């Protein structure tokens, strides 16, 4: 899978969750919830990280003072 180069903001977000990644895990895609579009969160938008092993959803709350992390393992559908 070839991925686009990460922005400085995405690299900073990855640094914040680095301690939760396995040693051989690599973040491929970072997606951040909109602050202004419908369904967005103006104060603390969710961030989704897709790695080579799982999907990580970072849900900050209290203006980023607290966060909830959801970790979803990916399964192989085709061999």
Largest sheet: 4 strands, antiparallel
Q: In angstroms, what separates the terminal alpha carbons?
A: 16 Å
Number of helices: 1
**What is the overall shape?**
globular
Number of strands: 4
Instruction: Give the DSSP E fraction (strand runs of 2 or more residues).
Output: 25-35%
Helix fraction bin: 10-25%
Order of H and E elements: HEEEE
Structural class: mainly beta
Description:
- This protein has 79 residues and is mainly beta.
- It has one helix at 8-17; strands at 27-32, 47-51, 54-61, 66-73.
- Strands 1-2-3-4 form a 4-stranded antiparallel β-sheet, covered by helices on one side.
- The longest helix has 10 residues, at 8-17.
Q: What's the helix and strand layout?
A:
Blueprint lengths: L7 H10 L9 E6 L14 E5 L2 E8 L4 E8 L6
Antiparallel strand pairs: 1-2, 2-3, 3-4
Keywords:
single chain, 79 residues, mainly beta, four-stranded antiparallel beta sheet, 4 strands
Summary of the model, kept short:
This protein is mostly beta strands. It is 13% helix and 34% strand.
């Amino acid at each position: 899978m070839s991925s686009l180069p990460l922005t400085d903001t995405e690299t900073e977000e990855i640094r914040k969750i680095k301690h939760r990644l396995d040693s051989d895990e690599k973040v491929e895609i970072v997606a951040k919830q909109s602050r202004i579009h419908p369904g967005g969160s103006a104060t603390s938008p969710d961030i989704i990280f897709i790695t080579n092993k799982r999907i990580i959803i970072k849900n900050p709350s209290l203006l980023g003072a607290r966060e909830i992390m959801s970790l979803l393992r990916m399964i192989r559908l085709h061999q």
